[in-house]
Design goal:
Elements lengths: L1 H35 L1 H4 L9 H7 L2 H4 L1 H17 L3 H32 L4 H29 L5 H25 L10 H7 L11 H13 L18 H6 L16 H6 L19 H13 L11 E3 L17 H11 L2 E4 L8 E4 L9 H5 L8 E5 L7 H7 L7 E3 L21 E3 L7 H4 L10 E3 L20
Length: 477
């Protein structure tokens, strides 16, 4: 009697499970189809939406790697299943999980694009590629049982090949969104690049914009403002697009850098919600901002060969000699920062790469006396950011003892140039910004002869050359 009851209960449980499984599949299928159809009901309009959409959407880069890994190993497990039966069951499970996680990734990716207002050719391609990938996986799931019954069937193998090709193409579109469309071609040999990836500024390849402005925009901005993605309806991947502006209006106001929205955004505090570049991307350097500002002030020309007050020689990559290990001075450096407020920031995790002196937080009170107290750490300082401090010509004389100094920012200081000749002893100095100072042409003349000083900024100084008929400024050679 007990045996019969047990058998009856077992049979009943099995029957209920058999009825439940189709219902689960039907429910999961409806949810999946609804997710795939989201772009039809909520088309990307380029407008940011609720913050909670972006919050969940930013998990997309984390979630998306799971289906990628599963799909890549799926054909390998299927091949192993031809030799060992147990692998076939594993492959079937992998296929189901790949489809489920692919649909979830599409959902998070759509939330990210719709919530942030992301539009653009590559955004659309990446989204459609993900949807196509999910459909192909669904077809694989439908065809696989017949393939298992008839090993000579080729349809499943063809679909798996299509899945891998779609995955590679879709992943490339996603990579372009993150790293820029030129990520694979940036370091391509010049001859090959002219054929396969012509420059967007090829019409004026020797202009100041092409050589010194466009590369900054291309590296720091185009990932979010280009053909891949058009945040705020703004594209910065060509001169014409840059000058056209976006949904907030013009971003470049020729001869008015303070009124140019682009310069306003890149000079905000990094904690500001409107700071650009956004999403944790690498900010523009002082040097890059200075170039853009001077270019805008002169008129933001697409073809001018140079900009008044900026002398730039051709960059040549060369290895920097190590500066020594400052680890033994860590305690003294911390004490100095607490007493003075100035900061000595490591260039990298490697102590031999040196330190950067930053005074932005105490610029109004930092003077020659404070600089003198830093001489103990001079052998380790490779860059000194002293813009808008109270440093004078006496401080420049102190800086001549910083033998490993490579970049020096003195813009907006009281320097007149009387002691600039002392800097000739700094054999590694390649960048010097004297914009907004009282430096004269006579004081600056020797600097232009220094072979290693490739970047010299004299914008808004008495040494700034007067405009000529061709608005040209010679470069340091």
């Amino acid at each position: 009697m007990n045996v019969a009851a047990t058998v009856a209960r077992t049979a009943g449980d099995a029957l209920r499970r058999a009825r439940l499984i189709p219902r689960l599949w039907i429910g999961a299928g409806c949810v999946g189809i609804s997710i795939l159809l989201l772009p039809l009901f909520f088309p990307l309009d380029g407008k940011p939406h609720a913050d909670w959409l972006q919050f969940f959407g930013r998990f997309h880069p984390l979630v998306v790697h799971l289906p990628i890994g599963l799909i890549v190993i799926l054909p390998l497990v299927e091949f192993a299943g031809t030799r060992r039966q147990s692998f076939r069951e594993v492959a079937g499970f992998l296929l189901q999980i790949s489809l489920a996680t692919c649909v979830v990734s599409i959902l998070f990716g759509f939330l990210l694009a719709y919530g942030s207002g992301g539009i653009g050719t590559t955004v659309t391609r990446h989204m459609r590629g993900g949807i196509l990938l999910a459909i192909e996986l669904l077809l694989c799931l439908a065809v696989r049982p017949s393939w298992l019954r008839a090993q000579r069937s080729r349809l499943y193998a063809i679909l798996l090949t299509a899945v891998l090709m779609t995955l590679a193409w879709t992943a490339h579109q996603g990579g372009s969104l993150t790293h820029g469309s030129d990520y694979l071609t940036r370091y391509m040999p010049a001859t090959l690049k002219r054929v396969l990836a012509p420059s967007a500024v090829s019409s004026h390849p020797n202009s100041f914009f092409a050589r010194h402005i466009y590369p900054v925009l291309d590296t720091k901005c185009v990932a979010c403002h280009g053909t891949n993605k058009e945040q705020g309806g703004l594209r910065l991947d060509s001169y014409e697009s840059l000058m056209a502006g976006g949904k907030d209006g013009m971003v470049i106001a020729p001869r008015n850098p303070d009124g140019s929205l682009l310069l306003q955004k890149v000079t905000l505090p990094p904690t500001d919600h409107h700071f650009m570049p956004a999403e944790g991307r690498t900010p523009l350097t002082r040097e890059e901002i200075a170039r853009i500002r001077a270019w805008v002030l002169q008129g933001a020309s697409p073809d001018a060969a140079s900009v008044l007050g900026i002398f730039i020689a051709e960059d040549q990559e060369q290895a920097r000699p190590p500066v020594g290990d400052y680890s033994a001075f860590i305690v003294e450096i911390r004490q100095m920062q607490q007493s003075q407020g100035a900061k000595l920031v490591p260039v990298s995790a490697n102590p031999s790469d040196g330190l950067i002196l930053r005074t932005a937080d105490v610029a109004g009170t930092f003077d020659d006396a404070h600089l003198t107290k830093l001489q103990r750490f001079a052998p380790f300082i490779v860059e000194a950011e002293l813009a808008r401090t109270a440093v004078t010509d006496a401080g420049v004389e102190t800086l001549s003892q910083f033998k490993n100094l490579r970049a020096l920012h003195l813009d907006g200081t009281a320097v007149t140039g009387r002691t600039l000749g002392k800097l000739s002893s700094l054999s590694q100095l390649t960048y010097l910004n004297l914009s907004g100072t009282k430096v004269t042409s006579d004081a600056a003349a020797p600097l232009k002869l220094e072979p290693n000083l490739r970047h010299l900024y004299l914008f808004n100084t008495p040494a700034e050359p007067a405009p000529t008929a061709d608005s040209g400024v010679r470069s340091i050679q």
